[in-house]
Specification:
Elements: H1 6-21, H2 44-74, H3 78-104, H4 113-130, H5 132-156, H6 162-184, H7 192-211
């Protein structure tokens, strides 16, 4: 099996950043879970709200993609690096699903995505430098917080927006699995101050992405 150099991985990061921020995703590995569900009639207010929620989730997936790429770049063990790359690939599906649903709702992706990508990539790279157990700890905590956000969005989606609901339910299930995988591979429990900062950043991201 070919061993990729640091420069190879850096080129991969640059390619991923461009595709993620400009919406040029690789072909999906799985079909959109909502593709067979008929769209429901929504009022203009309901449609705008659903589009805003899906924009938040799309931005969350942009952040997750960046976090995993940053961690994979600086991970010390090849096995951990492969785990990060695999998780990032699965998140590509989520990105594509959210992007498609946003368009169906006549919405747009967040204009702040490049900023959030850069921030999340830096956090991921630092976590990888700190050590694989801490890097995995960031994955576990991030996915745990994402799961909570998805739960709250499922509660506030318009009742008849079944297409968005199916997508979010599938994402929630897989995000929780990513957290469990990280714990299985030896994720360290992050200190409470770091968790608090992560929650604060998450709140800023969700509030801004809802409108911008």
């Amino acid at each position: 099996m070919r061993q990729f150099s640091f420069f190879d991985r850096l080129c991969n990061v640059a390619d991923s950043a461009l595709k993620t921020n400009f919406g040029v995703y690789d072909a999906e590995t799985r079909p959109n879970p909502a593709q067979t569900i008929e769209d429901s009639e929504l009022t203009q207010t309901q449609q705008q709200h659903a589009a805003s929620l899906m924009r938040i989730n799309h931005t969350g997936e942009v952040c997750a993609q960046a976090l995993y790429k940053g961690q994979a770049l600086t991970a010390k063990l090849p096995g951990i690096r492969q785990e990060m790359e695999q998780a990032a690939q699965e998140e590509v599906d989520h990105l594509a699903w959210c992007s498609q649903r946003i368009k169906e709702l006549n919405g747009r992706e967040s204009l702040l995505n490049p900023i959030w990508y850069a921030t999340s990539f830096a956090i991921g790279a630092v976590a990888g430098i700190a050590g694989d157990k801490w890097s995995l700890g960031f994955v576990a905590e991030t996915e745990h917080q994402v799961g909570k956000h998805l739960e709250s969005h499922l509660d506030t989606l318009p009742e008849h927006d079944n297409k968005s609901r199916v997508i979010l339910e599938q994402m929630q299930q897989e995000e929780l699995q990513h957290a469990e995988n990280a714990k299985h591979h030896g994720a360290a429990e992050l200190p409470m101050p770091i968790k608090a900062v992560m929650r604060l950043m998450s709140k800023v991201m969700t509030k801004s992405a809802y409108y911008i």
